[in-house]
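Give me the fold.
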Amino acid sequence: MQKLKCTVSYDGTNFSGSQIQPNKRTIQFEIEKAIKKIHKGKQIRIYASGRTDTGVHAVGQVFHFETDLLIPRKNWKKALNAILPDDIYIKKVENVSLNFHAQFDAIEKEYRYFVLNNKETDVFKRNYSYFYPFAIDMDIIKQACKLFEGTHDFTSFCSARSTVKGTKVRTLYEVSCEKQADEIVFILRGNGFLYNMVRIIVGVLLDVGSGKLSMNDIEEMFRKRDRSAAGKTVPPTGLFLWTVKYEDD
């Protein structure tokens, strides 16, 4: 028996999220279907570093599974990609210890969120960015980003539908943004993220940049620990799970 760790990228446009759901096309379903074919019909369960929602993309999602097939790593990558649909691609396959877990052993995740900041939309970017045609102050947004760095209770920046038990304290190592031409990219790195946390934070930062909110408003959101204190959740289309890091990396 061996355990394999796989890094996968996918275009989430035509998926109902990553986690398997009855009668819906998901990332987990497609990957497990491919692995099942390689195992001649034997069902093998995969375990991802975390779930992504409908329309959310990944550049470096990670999952693991166990197998009793003695196939070289490079052949696993080739075999899986030969079966998987074109909107999923296995980038890397590694052997790991049997006690490795893609979710529980992750020490850092990085998300990136892309915003098209132009008066005119771009039909070719509609599935990969959030169209925001309003004037914004990038300097103010960059200042506001710093308020989210560090260890905080992110209750106000978590979906009310979250099923997380226990504390909603998380540590963000980096919250930053840059603008090139008409594209803004937000980068968030941390030890863990709550449901819709990135999309809610980006929505708040855009509201600060357009003058709808102030720095004091953000501090009040943290203090209230109430989802209704923060603004809207921006669409999933601009969100990418960029990397997942582990101790051995």
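The two ends are 23 Å apart (CA to CA).
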